[in-house]
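sorry for the late reply, my laptop died twice this morning and i had to redo everyting from scratch. anyway the thing you sent over, i finally got around to it. pasting the sequence first so we're on the same page, its 306 residues, then the predicted structure underneath. double check i copied it right bc i was rushing
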Amino acid sequence: MSFSSKIKNEAAVEIPKARHCRIAELAAIYSGLKPQGRVRISKKIIIFKTENLTVANKSYILLRKVFHTAPEVMVRHHRGAKGSNVYMIALSGEDIVESFTKTMKLKPDYDISCGKLIQSECCKRAFLRGAFLVSGSMIDPNKSYHLEIVSQNSGYTEALKRIMGAFDFDVRITTRKKAEVLYIKEGTQISDFLNYIQAYKCMLDFENVRIVKGVRNNINRGVNCETANISRIVSAAQKQREDILLIKQKMGLQNLSPGLRQIAELRLNYPEASLQELADLLGPNISKSGVNHRLRRLSEIAKNYK
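ok and here's the structure:
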C-alpha cells in the first residue's frame, strides 16, 4: 500500500462531529470530483462517481449524516485495462436536491462558494482532509518529501490557497496537464499538514522516517568530514616528507639546527603521524603548534632549493 493510500485510509475514518465541519469536508470532495466530470446533478438527482472505494465510503457517510437520508449505492465494473470498479453514490428526489443546493451554497453553474462555507479553523481542517482524500497524493517519504493536491477548478484552487495560507503553509503552485498542483516540500510543514487532517499515525510514521534520515545524514556528514581531515593530514605529511628529503639531498639533515633535525627525522620515520602525535613523541617541552612551526621552517628551507 502506498503512503498516500495509508493517509487516505486514516483520514477517511475521521468523521467530524459538527455538521458544519461535515459540510466543509463534503464541499471539498464535491469540488474535487466535479471538475473531473464525476458529479452529475439535476433537479431530481445528484450522483458522485469515483473509482476510489475510500472516497466512495466517505462520501456516503457524509451525505447520510448531513442530509439524514441513506444515499443509493451502485457499483459498475469498469472494462478498462485495470478492471476497476466505479462507485456511484446518489441522492434522489427534488426535496433532497434542493436541500443539497442550499446547504452547499451552490452557484448557478453548480460550483460551490467555498468561502461562504468555510469560516472556522475546524472547518478548514475538514476541508483540507476532504481535498487530500479526493485529489491529494504524497511521495514515499523514504524517497522524497512531497505532498500535493491537484485542482481543476479556479475557485477550488483559490479556496485551497486561502486555507493553506491561513495555516502558514509555504504552498507552491505548478501546472500539470491543464490542472493546477498545489504542493508542499518542507518536512515540518508536511508533518503539520498530516496533523491538521488528523492522520496521526501517518504523521508519526513520517516523523520516524525523518529522524532516521536525519541520523543517517549526520553520520554521513561526520564520516565525510573525518575522511576529508585524514586526506588533508596525509597530503600535508607527504609534502613535508618530500621537503625533508630534498633538504637531506641538498644540504644533509646534520646541517640543520637540533630542533629542525629532530622533527625532520621523526617525520621521515612516522610518515602518517599527526602533528599532535609528533608532539607527543618529542616530549612535554613542545606543543602541536611548535611542531607545526618547525615543519613550516623546513618547508621554507626546501623552497629555496626548489
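The first strand starts at residue 39 and ends at 41.
thats about all i looked at so far, will dig more tmrw
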